[in-house]
Write a structure and sequence with these properties.
Blueprint: H1 3-12, H2 19-60, E1 64-68, H3 76-84, E2 89-104, E3 107-116, H4 118-124, H5 127-130, E4 131-134, E5 145-149, H6 150-156, E6 163-173, E7 178-191, H7 196-199, E8 202-206, H8 207-213, E9 222-227, H9 233-244, E10 248-252, H10 253-256, H11 258-296, H12 298-306, H13 311-342, H14 344-355, H15 362-365, H16 376-393, H17 395-402, H18 406-410
Parallel strand pairs: 3-8, 5-7
Antiparallel strand pairs: 1-9, 1-10, 2-3, 2-6, 2-9, 4-7, 5-8, 6-7
């Protein structure tokens, strides 16, 4: 052990006349620990939210969507077979997407109608996971059943078993007038995906019923794909395009929901920068601690200089002291942050009972518990940035200690 490290370790221990400096050191350690722990917990919660929202969106939407430029795909079985043969594609399902109006008694609501094959739809989406009543498998051709989102069903004031009227925008031209195409459907299921966009505006009917209502014969709007790795969607889309030809267009979830996920990523970065200010405050505390230590140890510094210690050695002593304070705060913060992030589902209810308030409401957020997902690369970035800030905070006090004049420091000793 070099003497610089040995002296730096001794300066971190409290003595009777330096108790106040040691108290400031403890505050610096706690401030660093609080900032690091807060960063780990908040970023883990935001990661959990991002994963939860992504799973909810892609539980209703699709990883990749193949459609034609005119909105109607005629030879869809061939397209589905060609897409299924692409490495990384798990399943394919046809769909029809069209606008419509739902009417029940005196209430009318607009809806996005999706015609599906129930057995194929379950391979690319997870509607059975979100069903609150009925089942997607009850949809059968010719029986004109319909599955509604929970908010849409609530707006229409219908439940399973009620009959609603679906009005298609395509009209019937008669000598008297243009009459709207309408058909009565029976509600066979209600789903709750937890995304208001889908819960309030999406309705599902059988593919054959959609073809009959919208007069599409054997054509569909497109084919939806589910991939083994959802993050490979852009690459799979690029590889599929030459295989399917130029008369189709392919979009993936990273493009169709780009603004939403970009907003979540931006919010995560801003929260990181905001919470990093806590670490910066702790780093300023280290500066004040070391400046007070340098002032208190001027006589010791002067004696070391007269014994032959170089300015670089004096700097090393106080850099060591500041680094030890920072490392103690980092270790305490990382340990506490990870412990809290991994046990958030237990910590939040305990905090609610302790404070007597409800911090998390399922009816508002549509999620039963606070999600948390620790990303080790985030933890690594937090540790590195915090350590660099702490190391930088030791430079000025150490440089000031190295410039101490031994004659001036010992004049009144």
């Amino acid at each position: 052990m070099t003497y610089e490290l040995l002296i730096g370790l001794r300066y971190t221990r409290a003595k009777r006349r330096t108790r106040f400096i040691s108290f400031i050191s403890v505050i610096s350690v706690l401030g660093m620990a609080l900032g690091v722990a807060a960063l780990i917990v908040v970023l883990s919660v935001m990661n959990g939210f991002q994963t939860e929202l992504r799973s909810r969106i892609l539980g209703v939407a699709s990883h990749v969507q193949i459609s034609s430029f005119n909105g109607e795909l005629s030879d869809w079985p061939a397209v589905a077979r060609a897409a299924s043969g692409q490495p990384g594609v798990r399943a394919a399902a046809p769909y029809i997407s069209a606008q419509g109006m739902l009417a029940y008694e005196q209430t009318v609501r607009g809806t996005l109608v999706r015609g599906v094959l129930p057995e194929a739809e379950e391979t690319v989406a997870e509607f059975n996971r979100y069903m609150r009543g009925g089942s997607l498998g009850v949809l059968r051709p010719g029986e004109f059943g319909i599955v509604l989102g929970v908010e849409l069903a609530h707006a229409l004031q219908v439940s399973v078993g009620d009959k609603v009227t679906l009005i298609a925008p395509q009209g019937l031209i008669t000598p008297a007038a243009v009459l709207p195409r309408l058909k009565q459907f029976r509600v066979v299921g209600i789903f709750e995906a937890g995304m208001y966009e889908y819960d309030s505006g999406l309705s599902l009917i059988h593919l054959a019923d959609a073809q009959a209502l919208y007069r599409m014969e054997d054509r569909v709007s497109g084919v939806r794909l589910k991939l083994d790795d959802l993050f490979a969607a852009p690459r799979v889309s690029r590889e599929l395009l030459p295989r399917l030809g130029a008369d189709v267009q392919i979009s993936d979830w990273t493009r169709s929901h780009a603004n939403f996920f970009r907003a979540v990523a931006l919010e995560k970065r801003m929260m990181f920068l905001i919470l990093l200010l806590i670490v910066a405050v702790a780093a300023f505390n280290i500066v004040s601690t070391l400046i007070m230590a340098v002032t208190d140890k001027e006589a010791d510094i002067a004696i070391l200089r007269t014994l032959g210690a170089s300015p670089a050695s004096i700097m090393s002593i106080f850099i060591t002291q500041g680094t030890l304070i920072a490392m103690a705060g980092l270790l305490l913060g990382v340990g506490g942050g990870l412990l809290l992030a991994f046990n958030l589902e237990t910590a939040v209810p305990a905090l609610e009972r302790l404070l007597g308030v409800q911090l998390w409401t399922k009816e508002v957020y549509f999620i039963s518990e606070l999600p948390s997902e620790v990303h080790w690369d985030d933890v690594g970035i937090i540790v590195v940035v915090s350590f660099v800030l702490s190391l930088l905070s030791t430079l000025y006090p150490s440089w000031r200690a190295a410039r101490t004049n031994p004659a001036e420091a010992l004049r009144y000793e």
